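Q: I'm building a small set of examples for a reading group on sequence design. Run inverse folding on the following structure and report the sequence directly after it, with nothing in between.
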């Protein structure tokens, strides 16, 4: 039976000395890449937060940095948005549940959704995937 313990007569073979520095070389390269990326990120933040605002303020200190949108341009919203959205939802359900005729010459008509599903089920119009298509 073989054991992993060294006996007094066995000599431990040290690893190859040339192969010991390979992992440290890769580690140092990746460390240099991350340090360079951190320096770039720091430079971008430094410019954005400390240099750029002062350049904009020194250009014309009396002008605002951003133009405000005038209130006349903004759309007028109803006072009660919930009432507006509830009414819109009711209108959409009425369209889904009603009969209608669009461009009849082109064959565009509307029927209630439930009726359309029932007609498709009765006439086997739902496409069924075969084993080959899946």
């Amino acid at each position: 039976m073989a054991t992993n313990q060294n006996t007094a007569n066995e000599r431990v073979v040290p690893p190859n000395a040339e192969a010991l520095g390979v992992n440290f070389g890769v580690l140092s390269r990746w460390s240099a890449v991350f340090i360079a990326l951190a320096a770039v990120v720091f430079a971008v933040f430094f410019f954005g937060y400390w240099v750029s605002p002062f350049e904009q303020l020194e250009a014309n200190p009396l002008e605002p940095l951003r133009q405000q949108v005038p209130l006349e341009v903004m759309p007028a919203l109803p006072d009660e948005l919930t009432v507006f959205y509830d009414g819109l939802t009711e209108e959409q359900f009425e369209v889904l549940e009603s009969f209608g005729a669009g461009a009849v010459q082109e064959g565009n008509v509307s029927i209630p959704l439930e009726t359309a599903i029932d007609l498709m089920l009765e006439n086997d119009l739902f496409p069924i995937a075969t084993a080959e298509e899946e």
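The helical segments are 22-59, 81-96, 113-122.
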